[in-house]
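Entry 12.
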Amino acid sequence: MWSVYLIRTARDQLYCGVTTDVNRRFEEHQSSPRGAKYLKGKGPLSLVWSHSVGDKRTAMQLEYRIKRLTKARKEQLILQSDKDSQLLWSLLD
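Predicted 3D structure (tokens):
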């Protein structure tokens, strides 16, 4: 099962990624050389949102579209408690 996730940096920046194991990947970002270069030295990090989407293709499409959103729209996505929110699925249309 593939998931898309958002991580917040200490400077309030948002990083979007995809993985098959959100907790493992978040730990890698925090302490492993396997973490994204973008996040190096930007801690502490916090996992603020994740959503399971099924297959890799869908996850990567959603990641691409989330990365193109404004920060305000990403914040809306984070605040929506309904996992099947209209905003999320409208990104795949």
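Annotation: Strands lie at 2-8, 14-19, 46-54. The helical segments are 22-31, 56-67, 71-79, 86-90.
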